[in-house]
């Protein structure tokens, strides 16, 4: 059986026996991911655990992620920091609402996520780094914002084509 998720087709296997057979003969096909074109721009598909096919390199990166970055002890140790970063996001949104300014949701969420992930490794947050270097956020470290937006939006829009169309049409 197939299921259409926006413009993507998903294969649904409902029988354990058929699933076992499909995974035995086609495990590499089912375990690989569709790589967005925007991730190829900076060769992220060659080095990112999110886009690598199942391989020795992927297993090594996944192991480091599981044991060092996303280990329960590490996550527990940084929970308070993550709460602070989310509260800062909420405060920013509230301040924008109070003053009648528009909220750049993509930038706000990206900054919050990046700060929550990167702060345990470095005491500097992105806004601090931007002030220190007096650089535009969108040009920081040469990362073109449009590429990051494209990667996120492209992934989202593949699954929610009708929703995106409706939003863009003003519905």
UniProtKB/TrEMBL annotation:
User: Pfam families, per this entry?
Assistant: p450
Give the molecular function GO annotations. heme binding; iron ion binding; monooxygenase activity; oxidoreductase activity, acting on paired donors, with incorporation or reduction of molecular oxygen
Q: Which SUPFAM superfamilies match?
A: Cytochrome P450
InterPro entries found in the cross-reference section: Cyt_P450, Cyt_P450_sf
Q: What is this protein called?
A: Cytochrome P450 76C2
Q: Which organism is it from?
A: Morella rubra (Chinese bayberry)
């Amino acid at each position: 059986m197939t299921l259409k998720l926006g413009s993507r087709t998903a294969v649904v296997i409902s029988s354990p026996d058929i699933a076992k057979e499909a995974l035995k003969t086609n495990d590499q096909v089912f375990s690989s991911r569709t790589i967005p074109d925007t991730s190829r721009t900076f060769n992220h598909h060659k080095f990112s655990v999110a886009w690598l096919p199942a391989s020795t390199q992927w297993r090594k990166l996944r192991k480091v992620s599981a044991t060092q970055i996303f280990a329960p002890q590490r996550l527990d140790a940084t929970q308070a920091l993550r709460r602070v970063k989310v509260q800062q996001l909420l405060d920013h949104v509230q301040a924008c609402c109070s003053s009648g300014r528009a909220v750049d949701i993509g930038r706000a969420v990206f900054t919050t996520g990046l700060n929550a992930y990167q702060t345990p490794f470095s005491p500097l947050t992105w806004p601090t780094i931007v002030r220190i270097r007096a650089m535009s956020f969108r040009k920081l470290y040469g990362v073109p914002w449009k590429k990051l937006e494209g990667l996120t939006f492209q992934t989202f829009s593949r699954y929610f084509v009708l929703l995106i169309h409706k939003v863009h049409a003003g519905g």
